[in-house]
């Protein structure tokens, strides 16, 4: 488990071939990594080498028939089960989840060239994806997490539809979501949209993991995924904003750095630097929640009402000062009398009171003026 102050956050790593090389020639898992994502071939090699790292494993599959026919799905799941059971018990191997990219048909688009095909949202695609997730979970007995994999959407509208579709799939399939912040940045930038706008589309209640990686800028201005590059400053900036927003969330969150390209074997210091940077970012998350602004809304409302009363009845505060009466205390005393003791509601205008005749209401300014006058008169009589 990552040694950060907030136990709800863990550090993950994408598999790198250097992790299976001899010590001194390859790479060591970065300090604090407690979660490792790896493909099928890497998973089998990892267990063959009997690695004893104290690390949970997640099988990550970029190209699956998640939106294809039932027959394709059933054949894939059967073949996968045969593979991961071969010569080992995948549950004993600390495999805790199956991650899959949310993609289209593998024979469409760039899927024909061996990459993750673009996901186009539709009811049929959603139904197929939900079925695949449920069948996978039933057959393998592990939770399935889906990841946003689109890079090259045609428009902001399409991106919005894709995120809405992903949310429907997660909830109907009882799956969790991996949000790849680099993918999100790339997809937004390629349609000239500020990436922060997309953060509001993410179903954060369903998110269990974040991915961070590098990006590559092409000569034509298009942005691409870059697992051989350090995490881009733009991606770090998005993560920092999320760190502040999600820091005190309930439930655990994994943050995975995907430095999976073999070129990192000769850049071990840079690789470790990104992990150390992530660790420092996570240490900035408070271990316990501060008082929520929602819990102080009454205080804010009373303070603003006090300000309005000073504007509406400007002579009351000077009169209180002359008599050494606390204006703030007088307002709070009036509110306690009206709201708590009488059970009435404060309204701002006579018109609002007329619309609520059936309820016990008092108009703020005249009600407070009468209350203050009575107190001042009592003070003068002493």
Give the ordered list of helices and strands. EEHEHEHEHEHHEEEHEHHHHEHEH
- CA-CA gap between termini: 70 Å
Shape: elongated
Estimate the strand proportion: 15-25%
Structural class: alpha/beta
Classify the helix fraction into a percent range: 40-55%
Uncertain residue segments: 1-5
Summarize it.
The protein has 382 residues and is of the alpha/beta class.
Descriptive notes:
- The structure is a single chain.
- Helix content is 43%, strand content 16%.
- The protein is an alpha/beta fold.
- The chain has helices at 40-48, 70-85, 123-140, 156-173, 181-189, 195-199, 233-246, 268-283, 297-312, 316-322, 327-341, 350-354, 364-381, and strands at 9-14, 33-38, 56-61, 95-102, 144-148, 176-180, 207-212, 214-217, 223-226, 253-257, 345-347, 361-363.
Sum up the structure in keywords:
8-stranded parallel barrel; elongated; alpha/beta; 43% helix; 382 residues
Please render the helix and strand layout as text:
Elements: E1 9-14, E2 33-38, H1 40-48, E3 56-61, H2 70-85, E4 95-102, H3 123-140, E5 144-148, H4 156-173, E6 176-180, H5 181-189, H6 195-199, E7 207-212, E8 214-217, E9 223-226, H7 233-246, E10 253-257, H8 268-283, H9 297-312, H10 316-322, H11 327-341, E11 345-347, H12 350-354, E12 361-363, H13 364-381
Parallel strand pairs: 1-2, 1-10, 2-3, 3-4, 4-5, 5-6, 6-7, 7-10, 11-12
Antiparallel strand pairs: 8-9
